[in-house]
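Checked the freezer inventory, then went back to the computational side. Two predictions to log before the end of the day. The first one is the construct we discussed on Monday; recording sequence and tokens without edits.
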Amino acid sequence: MKRFSDRHKLFFGIILITLLFTGLGLAGWFFVKNRIVYRSEYRLSADRVLVTVPPPWVPENFIAEVLQGSGLDTGATLFDTLLPQKLSQAFLASPWVEEVRQVHIRYPAGAEVQLVYRVPVALVEMVSQGFYPVDRNGILLPTDYFINVAPEKKENYPRITGIRSQPLGVTGTLWGDPLVHTAAQLAGLLEDVTQKLGLVKIIPSHEATPTGRRIVCRLQTNSETEILWGRFESNDPKNISKKKHLLEIAELYHSLDNVPAQFQPIDLSKD
């Protein structure tokens, strides 16, 4: 019985010592945590976040806005194991960000975030309501750059006209109208030749067919030369040949606006 009691005493002694050291370890961790983890050099801030160089239409305070909007500007520490996911979600919430490809945390310098930005390709023109920039997928983008920063840049983008619908959501979401989505995809296809061809308008509309209706598009130049593009589908291989044909016509006459009247409108719908 004595031996059994001594063994119990030894056993409980070991437990107490273990608990004591565990407690001291936890106390030490909290001490270190308060002294190191939350020191200013390990706190997340806009000047410690490096991102893929933003294009000019993204605001200068872009990073600060993202951190503030997500709440990561206060209390976030580089030692947070979930910080990469939190940063990814925060940047994806920005209307200017299409994709977050990689987030890398660096100690103690900060974070590096590789981004793919949304690119405006056209401006949806609304009667008496101004215009709204959209990307190639018909995602609604902020207007600030085109109104307050570089209003002259509006002339570099074709206008999508004839739209009666209102955006269904906020910036960073789809417009919600197939006419806008189709015209935006066409604008994306022609993005690299829009100014060269002098294209200023994309006019999508519904066309009746024997089985229902489909979306067709017309284009206009500065001098109102009209191009009948016809049906547009993003995965149609004919899009490339139509684009090439349009460039050949412009080269032949040195401008689409020089195409003789008898050959207007330029009809690509049969290509």
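The second is the one RB wanted added to the comparison set:
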Amino acid sequence: MVRKIMKDTAFLSQKAEIATAEDLPAAVDLLDTLRANAAGCVGMAANMIGVNKRIIAFDNEGAYMVMFNPEIVKSSGLYEAEEGCLSLPGVRKTKRRQMVKVRYQNENFQTRLKTFTGWTAQIIQHEIDHCNGVLI
């Protein structure tokens, strides 16, 4: 189900709770909402649809990917970026890393470790910031 985009900064500033298998329907809604906003959005966190859980969905080089409980365990290559967000007006400057290694759980809640670089790494960092209650 496509959900309304959350714009309440007090809600968005909260740290998200750990996601469990009971949150799988929220991940489906997150993907549906991301697809519906694909023209202006490449990634979303669950809090952007009003679900305060550690779930992100993003465009991983042309295919959508969902991560439950993502955590950056290693990063390198600091640079300055400008980003927009469906939940916030305008574009803001932020600092990002060129490479991130992420530990997460897949839809079967199996733990995975994967390295991302470039644009995909930037998207993931933005969405994990959402999970941590950090607004750009």
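For RB: The helical segments are 9-12, 24-36, 118-131. The CA atoms of residues 7 and 28 lie 20 Å apart. Let me know if you want it refolded.
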